[in-house]
Every structure is written in C-alpha cells, then in structure tokens.
Amino acid sequence: MNSSNRLGSGLMLQLLMLTALGITSSQGLSEEYLKDIKADQVAEQASGSYNYDQQGNDWEGTCQDGQQQSPVSLTSSAAIVTAIPRIYFYNYDQNLESPLILTNNGNTANMVLPPTQNGQRAYINGGLLPGTFEAQSVHFHWGSASSKGSEHTINSERYDVEMHIVHKNIRYQTVSEASAYADGLAVLGVMFRAVNRIFSLHSGLIRIFNQLPQIVEYESSTEVTGRLTVQQLLGNIKTGEFYSYNGSLTTPDCAESVTWTVFKDVVDLPERQIMKLWELKDSRSQPLTNNYRTLQDINDRPVYYTAQ
Ligand SMILES: [Zn+2]
After folding, report:
1. Would you place residue 201 in the very low, low, confident or very high pLDDT band (cuts 50, 70, 90)?
2. Ligand 1: distance of its center to the CA of 142 in Å?
3. 260 C-alpha vs ligand 1 centroid, how far in Å?
4. Measured in angstroms, how far is the CA atom of residue 6 from the centroid of ligand 1?
5. Domain segments of the chain: what residues?
6. Ligand 1 centroid from CA 182, angstroms
7. Mind listing the pLDDT tens digit for each residue in 157-192?
8. What's the 107 CA to ligand 1 centre distance in angstroms?
9. 234 CA to centre of ligand 1 in angstroms
10. Cβ distance 104 to 288 under 8 Å?
11. Fewest beta carbons within 10 Å, which of 46, 103, 166, 179?
C-alpha cells in the first residue's frame, strides 16, 4: 500500500500543500493553527482560479447574478445615520499564541490567525453584527505604483490599501460552512493611506509588511515572529465611526454571507511599506497588483453610518 492510499487522497493533498508552503509542525505552531491553515488552503483551492484582469467582471455564478454584492460605494449622504452600538472587541489586546504564517496565495497576502495566549480567539460583537464572530484571517487589497486599490470607496475616495479581518459566526464550525449562511461572516474593513514618511508608529503592521519580500512568489509562506495582537492591525483608528451593510465576499464564490463594517478612520503607513505589496506575483508569475473588485450595485440595500 503506498502512502497516498494509507493517508487518503484528501489528507495527502493537504500535507503536500503544507510541504509546498514550507510549513511543518516543528516551528512551534499548534495543531489547531496548522489545521486552520490547511482548511484555509483547501477553501482557497475550492474557489477555483481567478484573477483581477477585469477587476472581477468576468467572474461567474453569484459574482455575476447576486443582488447583495460587495464592495460598494459608501457615502455619508446616502447612508442612514443612526445610533447603533459600537463594535466590542474581545481578546484583541491579547498576544497571539504563536508566530503568524503569512502566505502569497496568488490573489493576496493572507494570514490565518491563531488563538491568543489565553486559549481563546479574538472575537467581536455589537454594531449590526447578528451574533458573536471570531477572527479567522487577515488579507489585503491594493493598487499599483499608479493606482489606488481599496475595494470600498468612502465619499468617492479610493484608498491605497484595504485590509480585511475575516470573522466567522461562532454558530458555525468553519469559514466554508459559515459562508453558506446570511449571518455567517463578519468582515472588518480598514483603509490604509500611503504617506511620505520613513517611520511608522504601527510596529505590528510594519513587522508584517517587512516580511512581504519573503512571499513574492506564488504559494510562498513566511513567519511573522514576535509578539503580535489583532489590535495592532487596526493601527490607532477610531473604531466608533463606521459604515455597515449586508453584502458578500469580494472574491469567488462571492457568497452573500457578510455583515460588513468599514471604518471611516484611516491608517497612515509609509509608502515604502505599501510598495512591498506591489512586488508580489500571482500564479502566472505576473505582478499581483490592483487586486480589488469593481464597485457593485447597492440594489436598495440600506447602508448605516454611525459616529460616536
Ligand atoms: Zn478581502
């Protein structure tokens, strides 16, 4: 009996992918974290190959015929301004239990988040969230040397980079399962602006960006070492001001399972850090730039805005 029979083809595939990413359990990563990274890879593969040649206009299925798609244009004039609860963050200030694995999956720079050192995950509730949502992964959308690349626009302004912190409703076991339900996922959107400064106060983000040159190639991974909290990803933005609406994943299969919370405040990052994103390559060894989806019709969906 050969090893692929003994392990079963699914597990074998997963092990091969991990090997391809140079990840082994000898690096002090927990079994749970490795399992989550594998699940994330399997979900990424299941979404099929796609690219940003037409900013998503050629994607099919729900991406083409969905009526609650993302991203959308967010404007203070069209939003319903109302007092909604703030977003409450739990364990966001706790150190993560292990180094992060940062991966170029051909579409973005992605990090699956491990639990924190207290054994729990970072999680959120409040806002318009239909439940409690655990932080699962973080990725970015960006432009190029000559274009900005946020997905949402705020008052018609497109920012240089948009970071997505993907959370899953604790009602569901996996992100894949959650994406089949309207209340399955919650994504926090954070805008980054390139500024002409050398230094940044956002040491956690800088440590992540400093590793980007290690993942230029498709399917390469690296570790982000040192103490890191999910809070550090938010820079020092005011989290009391945000837009919220019901939408979708902005990548295939564009599942309409996301409660979006997009913060109005912006993280300033040195341009020399943001430039590192433009160096990444996709699965065709082409520059991975402008990996944002075109704006989608709002179709009478309410967009809420709160400032507190
Ligand atoms: Zn995204």
Report:
1. confident
2. 10
3. 11
4. 37
5. 3-299
6. 17
7. 999 999 999 999 999 999 999 999 999 999 999 999
8. 10
9. 15
10. yes
11. 46
Report the separation in Å between the CA atom of 187 and the middle of ligand 1, taken as the mean of its atom positions.
8
How close is the Cα of 4 to the center of ligand 1, in Å?
A: 34
Q: Give phi and psi for 65, each to the nearest 5.
A: -110, 5
Tens digits of residue pLDDT in 242-296: 999 999 999 999 999 999 999 999 999 999 999 999 999 999 999 999 999 999 9
Fold annotation for 3-299 = Carbonic Anhydrase II (3.10.200)
The DSSP bridge pattern shows strands 153-154 and 73-74 to be: parallel
Distance 307 CA to ligand 1 centre (A): 24
What pLDDT, on the 0 to 100 scale, is given for residue 253?
95
